[in-house]
Amino acid sequence: MWTGKLEKLDEFRFLIPREYKKGMSVPGLVFTSEKLLSAIKEDQSLEQVANVATIPGILKYSYAMPDIHWGYGFPIGGVAATDWMKGVISPGGVGYDINCGVRLIRSNLQVEAVEKVRESLADALFEAVPCGVGEEGHLRLSYPELDRVLEGGVPVVVKMGYGWEEDVNACEEYGCMPGARADKVSSRAKERGRGQMGTLGAGNHFLEVQRVAEVYDEVTASAFGLFQNQVTVMIHCGSRGLGHQVCEDSIKVMRSAVEKYHIVLPDPQLACTPIQSPEGKDYFAAMAAAANFAWANRQTIMHFVRQAFSKIFHQSPRDLGLTLIYDVAHNMAKREIHRFNGKEKEVCVHRKGATRSFGPNRKEVTEAYRSIGQPVLIPGNMGTSSYVLVGTEQSMGETFGSSCHGAGRVMSRSRALKTLRGQDVVEILKKRGITVRAKSWKGVAEEAPEVYKDVDEVVRVVHQAGIARRVARMVPLIVVKG
User: Fold this and answer.
1) 158 and 299 in contact (C-beta within 8 Å)?
2) Is 431 helix (H, G, I), strand (E, B) or coil?
């Protein structure tokens, strides 16, 4: 239980003052509610918020979103911006699953159409998208092909035949991080990743067929192509073994380099180097390459999802209206320009378990949504709601354009396995009208709905705080898990 100092600023903002811990150069700002706070205090994630406030070059605040929980170095649900020229970059501020993210696909179908073929569609999706720990996919890239994906992202796999040209415009960064270098990714990372393109992995990753249960903002929902009772598909996964290895390789380098740059840290897991150092530049280039792999992975999965729908409904994916609404990243370090102290400033925004929430009129947002703001996709977990929100102008000024990324765990995987049985979870969900296909009972038990915070409350906090605005809520019909 965390017992540190926390000052309530208003209903949804709490402050960890600079005086709380030696070395804090900025305060910690926690977005939460009283209802969520007791669960947040059960681990030491708020202590991690204070620790992050000590890293060199951090600006404004060390942020925590309402889905915050304990992570490696940085908390999951943490955001920190550092000065691009004078600050540091930290692999712990991105995480092991680089560019774990979410993409949402719309359809022309209403829920009644899926109910007629629910079981066969679930089987088709489970067969089309390999899932599970270490699972490889239907294609194994050559090393030259992999290098092209690492540097070119979604546009490369679209040219390979896995998708449509317009998919590129519906991805954050257009599915390709600038600055990516395949030669900065180790041979071990490449070997782990080249057979995993188009695979879901395990843990909290999923593929869901969903129903739009509620629309809060008709105008924005219409702009995103959403309507009541519509069938959507959500894909939640990341860079698989390749991204994990990139993080592991980089942490080793940075842990040994901390002394070289005379950086003093309260936790060695915060290992970092100046962004402009050779080590910092190498990490950014490798991280960007892993991010491109993740975008390409989700793109390839979407291609196989479209094929599965086409097989079951006997229509082409285009006739079914299976178009990409958007794809967002939530484990990234981004080079961005934000206003700070009244002036535009180039910064490195670490978002670990946090989603970019850019408001209207930012050039980074695809033209189709630029006048509205960026879609913010918040996944639930098997038995809970998922949400579409939209970025706001307030988030740009307050959180470097950032929001939450999901519900956030309240129960460890080991504890879940001691208290829950996967078979029981599946039966309970079946009675609630949710069909599950999973690689293992263990994976289901670890990711049961009760191991997560209340996603409705998490979304309420960011909505009421003004850093993202609710657009629509979806509920699961079919879930595919690793």
Assistant:
1) yes
2) helix
How far apart, in whole angstroms, are the C-alpha atoms of residue 204 and residue 237? 8
Q: What's the rounded mean pLDDT across residues 389-393?
A: 98
pTM: 0.97
Cα pseudo-dihedral 280, 92, 404, 296, rounded to 10: 60
What SS3 class is residue 9? strand
State which H helix or E strand residue 82 sits in. Answer: strand 76-83
User: Which helix (H) or strand (E) segment is 207 a member of?
Assistant: strand 206-215
Q: What is the DSSP letter of 273?
A: E
Which listed residue (205, 244, 350, 405) is catalytic?
405
The 10 Å Cβ neighbour count of residue 159 is: 12
Please provide the DSSP assignment of 353-403 as one string.
S-EE-B-TT-TTS-GGGTTT--EEEE---SSS-EEEEEEBHHHHHHSSSEE
Token pair of 365 as six digits: 């947002």
Q: Active site includes 405? A: yes
Q: Alpha-carbon dihedral of residues 366, 367, 370, 372, nearest 10 degrees? A: -100
Over residues 51-75, mean pLDDT: 98
Token readout for 243 is: 């991204």
**CA–CA separation, 119 vs 386, rounded Å?**
22
Any long-range contacts for 39-42 (C-beta under 8 Å, 24+ apart)? 39/410, 39/453, 40/2, 40/64, 40/66, 40/68, 40/69, 41/1, 41/2, 41/3, 42/1, 42/2, 42/410
pLDDT at 300: 97
Query: In the chain, what percentage of residues exceed pLDDT 90?
Result: 93
Dihedral over Cα of 164, 165, 170, 176: its sign: positive
| Other CB atoms within 10 Å distance of the CB of residue 123 | 16
Element (H, E) at 469: strand 468-481
For the record, the structure tokens of 454 come out as: 């209340």
